[in-house]
What we know:
2 copies of one chain form a homodimer.
Chain A: H1 2-14, H2 18-23, E1 25-33, E2 37-40, H3 42-55, E3 58-70, E4 74-87, E5 90-92, E6 95-103, E7 106-113, H4 116-126
Parallel strand pairs in A: 1-7
Antiparallel strand pairs in A: 1-2, 3-4, 4-5, 4-6, 6-7
Amino acid sequence: MPGELVTRFIDAIVANDLDTASSLVSDDIEYDNVPMGKVNGKEAFHSFLGPFLDSALEIEWIIHHQVASGGLGNGVVMNERVDRFKLAGGWMEPPVAGLFVIQDGLITLWRDYFDLATFQTQLANVSS
Amino acid sequence: MPGELVTRFIDAIVANDLDTASSLVSDDIEYDNVPMGKVNGKEAFHSFLGPFLDSALEIEWIIHHQVASGGLGNGVVMNERVDRFKLAGGWMEPPVAGLFVIQDGLITLWRDYFDLATFQTQLANVSS
């Protein structure tokens, strides 16, 4: 089911296993961090996310709620998360709401809503 | 079902009918605009939202996706929206992701995720 696919996808990201995560997205995935902008395609998804995951000492994403509709052929999942990253100066934990559109068993759209200033302030505080 | 309750709630807000909207929330509703902060209780919900709705010449919220789980006794709804408000200088249309928790047939939590700078910039541009 679509919710389980997204859970597997997030488990892979938290494990910094982008090969597994990439295997769950379509070649033309749209990866949209709304206040930052979007990238398109599996390679761009990998290039955008990889360095940030690599920079983290620990990663822990807490899913507060996740709801889904449809099936693996055509489904929608949304979740409310806290994406925790431990950097040199401590944990950052931006609150995020995410949308995932699934088609033909793959994630074709991942769009995250969050406050960019909150993210940047937290990042600055734990980067040193 | 919870999704229909949220749709009725949003229809009431878009119609600037806060009395109807208020009848669908619990007395102790938590209304949380994540990057701005939260207010608690039906009166605070009404006082926070009312002036902003009153200031709009037209209101149109576009629901791109809405997913729900559970029932009216205990349910969760999330949606992806563009909350369009027409002010003197034109339309603002901030992108938003919302979470609604329903208990005993009423909305007990409404939490919206969005980028505050995007909202403020759009508001400034159409307020004149």
